[in-house]
Amino acid sequence: SWSIFEDRILYQLLVFLQPPSRHSFRLELYSGTRLPERCSNIRVVLECTCLKEMGNIPCFVHPRKDKETAQHSPLLQTLCTGSYLDVEEIACWVQNLVQTAWEHLPQWQHWQLTVLPSSHSCRVLLSGPSDIQLCAVLVFAVEQGSP
């Protein structure tokens, strides 16, 4: 969605997260009196790939005995707390990704990108040569029922 407030255009974008190969997402609702839409955890499940034809890609669940080092999931190590997606880690990762990508876009040399503080989304402000500012808010979601 988008809206205009005086000299600022606000874009709100819903970004659906997809699990990488050998992973799946499982929605786990809290039991209690709070609203389930607001109080859910997304558990990252490592999928067994032993019986699938995936070439030399190792299985996270059943590592080969001939390998000296066990394989670890980069997703679990970077964007999760325990086995659950951590929205603060995701927001920080996307903010860094946007900032790094922006530095490689020469066509935007007359625009300034400011990453705004946010622990549950990615908020960026673009200021250009005119008085108009663009603000984009990336909100993260996982589609319920998707693999």
Description:
This protein has 147 residues and is an alpha+beta fold. The protein has one domain. Helices cover 14% and strands 35% of the residues. The chain contains 2 helices and 9 strands. It has helices spanning 74-78, 87-102; strands at 2-5, 8-16, 23-29, 40-46, 80-81, 84-85, 112-116, 121-127, 133-141. The strands form 3 sheets. A 5-stranded mixed β-sheet has the order 1-2-9-8-7. The longest helix has 16 residues, at 87-102. This is IPIL1 protein.
**Any low-confidence stretches, pLDDT <50, length ≥5?**
35-39
Tally of helical runs:
2
| Head-to-tail CA distance between termini | 26 Å
Q: Can you write the helix and strand succession as a string?
A: EEEEHEEHEEE
Percent helix: 10-25%
Average pLDDT level: 80
Please identify the structural class as seen in this structure. alpha+beta
Number of distinct beta strands: 9
Question: Order of strands side by side in the largest beta sheet?
Answer: 1-2-9-8-7
Please outline the major beta sheet.
Answer: 5 strands, mixed
Beta-strand residue fraction = 35-45%
**Domain unit count:** 1
Radius of gyration: 20 Å
Overall spatial form: elongated
